[in-house]
Amino acid sequence: MPENQAKASEVYVIDKKITCPVCECEFNARVPRDVRLRLVGSDTDLRPHYEPIDPMHYDVLICPYCGYAALSMNFNNMSERLADKIKSTITPNFTYKPYPPMYDATIAVERYKQALNVHDAKGGSAGERGYIYLKMGWMYRELEQPEKEQECMKTALKDLTKAAECPKRQWRIFWVKWSAASAMKTKRCDGLGKF
Ligand SMILES: [Zn+2]
Asked: What are all long-range contacts of 43-46, with beta carbons under 8 Å and residues at least 24 apart?
């Protein structure tokens, strides 16, 4: 581990004890220290920018024992039926991968992909899937991979539009805000349709 990264990790991130709702094992999840974060701006599609680290790099929690992964806000949403599904479809194909103390956009993409695998295995909501794609698209933007960013955004828009058709869903509010902001963009909206 590089010495400067180890020092920075002590300041900006902490290990938080989490109990996996699927296998019930306890593990340490790397999470940013909220008090250290400062919002310094946002893109026109509401992608927030924080300093000194990007909390979105840490937004997916992965259980190192069973491979269950989800956005931190949805991590504890679990039922016995879904847990059994994950144990039978995700766990047998999962190999634990250790990560360095500080995550970057490349690592974040890997972790968002694991969250997507789990989401598809358990048959989660369109809103949750769209939100994962949206965040993964923002990671590709940071990595300056515009084709992959656009692919993610197209899927995000499709899923979030579907989720917004249900008026009781929280995603509706987010979608309206995000799509309105996106519509003000010109170049990045090319090929994404009209809203
Ligand atoms: Zn687990």
From this structure: 43/141, 44/181, 44/182, 44/184, 44/185, 45/178, 45/181, 45/182, 45/185, 45/188, 46/177, 46/178, 46/181
Q: Please name the residues in contact with 179: beta carbons below 8 A apart, sequence gap of 6 or more.
A: 157, 160, 161, 195
Omega before residue 52 within 30° of 0, cis: yes
CA of 16 to the centre of ligand 1 (A): 15
- At 5, list the tokens: 């990264």
pLDDT one-digit tens code per residue, 13-65 = 999 999 999 999 999 999 998 777 899 998 888 899 999 999 999 999 999 99
Burial class (CB in 10 A: 0-12, 13-18, 19+), 85: middle
Angle at Cα 112 formed by Cα 110 and Cα 114, nearest 5°? 70
Cβ-based neighbours of 173, under 8 Å, separated by 6 or more:
none
Distances in whole angstroms, Cα of residue 156 to Cα of each of 77, 131, 152, 162: 21, 6, 6, 10
Q: Distance from the CA of 26 to the center of ligand 1, in angstroms? A: 8
Give pLDDT tens digits for 109-166.
999 999 999 999 999 888 899 999 999 999 999 999 999 999 999 999 888 888 877 6
Answer yes or no: are the C-beta atoms of 84 and 60 closer than 8 Å: no
Using a CB cutoff of 5 Å, list residues around ligand 1, an ion. Answer: 20, 22-23, 63, 65-66, 68
